[in-house]
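Ticket 4471: requesting a sanity check on a complex prediction with flavin-adenine dinucleotide. Repro inputs:
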Amino acid sequence: MPLYDPVIYDRSLPVQSYWETTAQPPEYAPLNQLETCEVAVIGAGLTGLSAAWHLAQAGVEVAIVEPG
Ligand SMILES: Cc1cc2nc3c(=O)[nH]c(=O)nc-3n(C[C@H](O)[C@H](O)[C@H](O)COP(=O)(O)OP(=O)(O)OC[C@H]3O[C@@H](n4cnc5c(N)ncnc54)[C@H](O)[C@@H]3O)c2cc1C
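Returned structure tokens:
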């Protein structure tokens, strides 16, 4: 009995991302007007999301900008 998912042992199968198959990111409207916030985080990568999360936890009004 294989230890891991069978896809790992068959190189002919595409390796699927767990995130891609399970995440359902919400749709956000494009930023086409002036918005105000205390801190704008440019880029929703690991660094940006972590910074935004910690700022929000501290009560800071934060907005994240990510190219569509
Ligand atoms: C193929 C690959 C596999 C990897 N595998 C692993 C792994 O298994 N484990 C691991 O720990 N690390 C892995 N890494 C490294 C990890 O992905 C990076 O270290 C990490 O994503 C860096 O985070 P970051 O927030 O600095 O940058 P990023 O995740 O690159 O985030 C930057 C964000 O800024 C956005 N952005 C860029 N320009 C603008 C702009 N002008 N305006 C607004 N937004 C903008 C981008 O769209 C992006 O969302 C991998 C990297 C790659 C490329």
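Notes from triage: Residues 31-68 form one domain. Leaving this open until the requester confirms.
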